[in-house]
């Protein structure tokens, strides 16, 4: 499985960005896809996940601001980020968790600054 992430950039506080991740290859019908982020000098942490049946989880700091969704027909997962804060600045990574293995996409930088 290969992942291609896109959509990062520079945005002012309060603004919005949309991250997209496209998966290709041998996609299992049962999987979890998610977004993680790593701020400078910090560990990589989960932001949001979504199962192949649509169940979602969010880290508390993004609840009510971020929405994760997926299109199983297109094997894509999207993270809509609203009301962005400077502390959301990080490199965001897409992750695919299949049966017995997982795959990371390349990171995409999100910078929230005025």
Describe the protein.
The chain is mainly β. Helices cover 0% and strands 54% of the residues. Strands 2, 4, 5, 6, 9, 10 and 11 form a seven-stranded mixed beta sheet that branches. The protein has a four-stranded antiparallel beta sheet with strand order 1-3-8-7, with no helix packed on it. A hairpin with a 4-residue loop joins strand 5 and strand 6. It is globular and about 40 Å long.
Which terms would index this structure?
11 strands; 114 residues; 54% strand; four-stranded antiparallel β-sheet; mainly beta; globular
SSE blueprint and pairings:
Blueprint (H helix, E strand, L loop, with lengths): L1 E5 L2 E3 L5 E8 L7 E7 L5 E8 L4 E3 L7 E6 L4 E6 L8 E8 L4 E3 L3 E5 L2
Parallel strand pairs: 2-11
Antiparallel strand pairs: 1-3, 3-8, 4-5, 4-9, 5-6, 7-8, 9-10, 9-11
Would you tell me the structural class of the helices and strands?
mainly beta
Instruction: Please give the largest β-sheet.
Output: 7 strands, mixed
Order of helices and strands: EEEEEEEEEEE
Radius of gyration: 13 Å
Brief rundown of the structure:
The protein is an all-beta fold. The protein has strands at 2-6, 9-11, 17-24, 32-38, 44-51, 56-58, 66-71, 76-81, 90-97, 102-104, 108-112.
């Amino acid at each position: 499985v290969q992942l291609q992430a896109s959509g990062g950039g520079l945005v002012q506080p309060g603004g919005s960005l949309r991250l997209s991740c496209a998966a290709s290859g041998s996609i299992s019908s049962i999987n979890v896809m998610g977004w993680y982020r790593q701020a400078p000098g910090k560990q990589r942490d989960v932001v949001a996940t979504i199962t192949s049946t649509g169940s979602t989880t969010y880290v508390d700091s993004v609840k009510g601001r971020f929405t994760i969704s997926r299109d199983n027909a297109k094997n894509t997962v999207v993270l809509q980020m609203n009301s962005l804060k400077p502390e959301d600045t990080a490199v965001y990574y897409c992750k695919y968790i299949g049966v017995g293995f997982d795959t990371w996409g390349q990171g995409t930088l999100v910078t929230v600054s005025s």
